[in-house]
Amino acid sequence: MSVEMQEAYQHNQAIIINNSKEFSDNPNIKNKEDNNVIELNNKKDELNLNLEQEFSINEINDDEEIAKTVDEMFSD
């Protein structure tokens, strides 16, 4: 059993439901969960931004290819 679980049991702040550990009213654990959620949201935002930039670059390259093709068609 982890130290956190032992401390939670000592303060009647932990229960076991279906063999999974559940904590209640433990601000330290809550803060860790909140920080993990914030970190994951930041990572998600970073990945979304990278995808947007990648799509933007691909669109620019596509536009350049189209312009080049049109120029070649009318240059003859």
Topology:
Elements: H1 3-10, E1 14-17, E2 20-23, H2 27-74
Antiparallel strand pairs: 1-2
Helical element count? 2
| Whole-angstrom Rg | 27 Å
Alpha carbon gap, first and last residue: 79 Å
Could you tell me the number of beta strands? 2
Low-confidence stretches: none
The strands making up the biggest β-sheet line up spatially as 1-2
Indicate the multimeric state: single chain
What's the shape?
Answer: rod-shaped
Number of domains: 1
Report on this model:
By secondary structure, the chain is mostly helical. The protein has one domain. It is built from 2 helices and 2 strands. It has a two-stranded antiparallel sheet. Strand 1 and strand 2 form a beta hairpin. The longest helix is centred in the middle third of the chain and has 48 residues. The protein starts with a helix and ends with a helix.
